[in-house]
Amino acid sequence: MPDKVVSIGFLTEQDLRKLGDGFSRHFPIESDDHFADLMAKLDQIPYHHSPKARSSQTRR
Hints:
By secondary structure, this protein is mainly alpha-helical. It contains three helices and no strands. Helix content is 38%, strand content 0%.
């Protein structure tokens, strides 16, 4: 059974360097406007800081 997709992200080259060699399944995209509409819509989503979620991540 193939792995279930649980996340899709737009990463920079710096993000990939931080993730290291263990993060091998990325698909580079050309520098064009194919995702401009999607990015504009994502930028409209309000950010809600959640200290509780952040603190649970740091306890790992």
